[in-house]
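DM from R.C. (forwarded with permission)

"hey, sorry to bug you on a friday — could you get me a structure for this? deadline for the figure draft is monday and I only need the backbone to look sensible"
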Amino acid sequence: MINLNDLVLFAAAVEHGGFAAASRRLGLPRSTISKRVAELEDALSTRLIHRTSRSFTLTELGRDFYEHARAALIEAEAAEAIVRRRQAEPSGTVRISASVPVAQLDLAAHLPHLARAYPKVRVELDVTDRFVDVLQEGVDIAVRSHFAPLPDSGLVQRQLLVEPIILVAAPGYIELHGMPETPTGLQDHLGLLTAPLASAWQLSSAPGQRAEVSPQPAMVANESVVLIAAALAGLGIVCLPERMCRDALAASRLVHVLPEWNAGTVTTTLLMPHRRGQLPAVRATVEFLVECFRDVA
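My reply, with the result:
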């Protein structure tokens, strides 16, 4: 029977990318962690990690073993938590991964309220637009905005919000270039685009009409804050999620172009491993975020 405490050290080394990082995280000597993982490999009679002075990578068998080791540790946490569930206040660390727009537009405003509601919960927020392997990287909750349905990953998915992508422009731009009356009219207008090859806008209306139009490219940027700033400066018409434009529309700094048409929708989804959702701190954070997004819809 292997020493189950060694699973903790092995998982920490994997999650933090090496023995040195795990040592700093756990407050244990690096040599102790390395020795215990080596003893674990001896007990299993297999190599779990390829390690040199410059690299730390899992073997194929090591990756499979890690997934089961993490599951065992999560079940141990859940077993302890279920005993304390009725009396215990949610506590512990909740690791959240969010894309840049979600972090800026949603989480930045709401996480302070979460901290006040659950003072014993410590949130670790990683803001990135790269692909995050939720299971491999030990993430409890991932919040992502996406245009196409997410693939079936075996993760729990909770849809938080679906919002239209609308067309907006600055009043000064409309005064200078006129307000297009139909989608076809956009062909003669300046457009702020998300990518060089994304030159055509796919528009739809409530009655089910569809149109594809290509405005004259005025700027290309793959970041929404840059695009809305360009629109506010009067550089052209842009397609953006409605909530991102809401304040500027209310203040008349932007105007809604072709309000009966939109450029699709963007969905915000919460993802988490099934077992993590059983932990009180994670469950409390999930329900808090669901309520926050319900309020802004």
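R.C.: lifesaver. The mean pLDDT is 89.
me: no worries. The radius of gyration is 24 Å.
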